[in-house]
Structures are given as C-alpha cells and as structure tokens.
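Subject: Sanity check before I submit

Could someone independently write out the structure tokens for this chain? I want to compare against mine line by line before I put it in a report. The sequence has 238 residues.
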Amino acid sequence: MKKILSSLSVLLLCFSASSTLRADESLADLNKLLTDARGWLTSYQIDDKKAIPPELFQQAKGIFFCKMVGGSFVIGAQGGEGFGMIRKDGEWSAPAFYSVGSGSFGAQIGGGETTILMFLMNDEGLEVLSSDDTNWGGTAKAVGGPSSASASDSWSSDTSAKQNNALGQADIFYYVTATGLEASAAFKGTQCSYDEEATDTYYGTAGMTRESVYHGDHKVSKQAAAFIELLDQQAEGE
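---
Independent answer below. Compare away.
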C-alpha cells in the first residue's frame, strides 16, 4: 500500500446511516444529488484558473461525489448520500450510493456548504468504493487536483491543494468547494459506507451490491445519464 502524504491525514471511518424518508422521496433526492453533481461540475469548469483538465476525465478509473451543508449532508435526516461510478471498457458505470458523514468536520464549518469531487486514478484509489473498512488515508495517496491553468498555483491559498502537473503521482485527486474552509481541511474527516438501501431504492430492486451495480448493465435515470454525458464531454475538452 502506498503511504498518504502526511499533510492530509485523511480519516475514513465508515458508518451506517439510516433514512427516515419514504422511498419515493428518497428516490427524488438521489436524483437531485445527481443533478446537483452535474450543476456543480458545470459551474466549476467555468473558471479556467481552476478548471479540471480533460486528462483527469480521460484517465480516471472512478469518481466519487458528495455534498454537505453545516456538517450534515443534504440528503436524509441522519446522514447523507454520495455516489460513486467506475469506468469499465471506456464507459462509465451506473452510480452506487454511499452514506456520507463528516466526523468532527461539522463543528469546524458551522453552516457552511462543502462539495467534494474525487477522481480515483488507479486500483488503489478505487478501494475507497469497494470496502467499507477502507481508510482513505491508510490506502491511498490523495492530493488536491491539478487545474487546466497548472502553470499558476495562485487559485488556492491551501498549499497542500495546489496544482500538481504529474497526474501519475496520486491515487486520488480531489476538488473541493467549501465555505470558509480550505480544501484540505474540508477533505479531512470524510466518512462513508456503501448504502444498499439507497441503491435498492434507486434501482427498484432489493439486495443490490456495489459489485452488481459497477459490473452490471443497468438502466439509469435521466439525471445520471446527463451527468455521465457531461463527464464524457469534459474528457473531450468540450
């Protein structure tokens, strides 16, 4: 296993989060999460100084997205949802959903909003999606991702999140927008575990494992299809 850069000290303590939402409301919220991911990425790419370069979209083996407000994630009364996708045979898989929490992070940001998009660059990076016992900090080297304007590192005041020109030097590249918090601080303490209940709700089938999602052939919602289309467009530099 590769060692994480000491400046990050990323802790992933996985936990289970129950939902108090009815199934139809939960499905609507899961689709909203996918819509929010597309909107966030579209907005992030507008600024050339920090836009994510096409090479990451081309080379990533997987992605993980989540959104948080004030330490409580947007979806669910007792936790929240993120989602992951992997690339297989050059195509993005259907999404699998994860319960996400923040450890001590909520106390740090108060009512602020934080969004994280992670690019999983190799098999070691993909471990964050495959095992609920995986500690991101213990299994993967994670750094703030490079920008399209990588010749300049002035867009972030966080020295550990400045652009890295060598895409091959990290298992995970992360991009963060956070209110009142620097990127690496926002990234610390993120927790997640596979949420079978949410995934079952999304696909309308009981007993969906993450493996069956990632390696199966599943029909996805129009919201997921639109996000996948955007990923492909970004890979082409559009």
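---
OP: Matches mine. For the report I'm noting this point. DSSP finds nine helices and nine strands in the chain.
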